[in-house]
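Write out the 3D structure for:
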Amino acid sequence: MFGSPRPGDKALSGRRIVITGAARGLGRALAIVAADLGAELVLWGRDSSRLALVAAAIQTRTGREPTSAQCDLADADSIREACRRTLTLAPVVDVLINNAAPWLPGRLEDLTEATIAETLAAAVTGTVLVTKELLPALRRSAAADIVTVVSTAALLGQSSGEASAVFHAAKHAQSGFSDKLRMELKEHGIRVSAIYPPDFDDTDPLAPEWNEVREPAAHGRLTNREVVEAVLFAITAPRVCSYPVIVLDNMWRE
């Protein structure tokens, strides 16, 4: 699939992509690889200093400076301000990647009410509000995609390691939202995809191990590189088709 872009490979050239949770982990990796492929990026995240590091890395690699917007998805006012900043700079969004969602481990009885409410607000209400606010800009695109990074925790009968029941609930909500939204927007030519990764290891496109070929028996589970490749596969597919659901599975053997 994609891996490290080949010289001259600009599969995302001219596409304006908003990535939530872009300050670290999977979001950071998505941003760096998409920039290498020519995308015009808008990076959202809670940590402005980490966003600045991602933006600086992208500018060094590509010569293009992405736009950044600090945003707390658990705060509706923060979402509105990030959307205002995004759309003031340009009225069109070609791809929205709903990546941000707080990880919450633990047993239900050990979690505070505030933590539960914040987790659900960011992952569920936040995802819905971001999508709603940016939908007019996506409608202005000639080839729009909405991708939500969900989790195999949203699949019936699946358990995501140490993830709490609250995390599972949030991911089930994201899954249902993506499924219904796909039906609503199909007639408008907007593709809606949900990516379901299992637990994975974080690596970074700027690190040597990014290009390491892992063997299931020796190196364990998949990394965020495979998740990045799944997202890129969905948004670069010919417009005649879409991939509503992409489920990833670890092939490692204990």
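The chain is about 40% helix and 15% strand.
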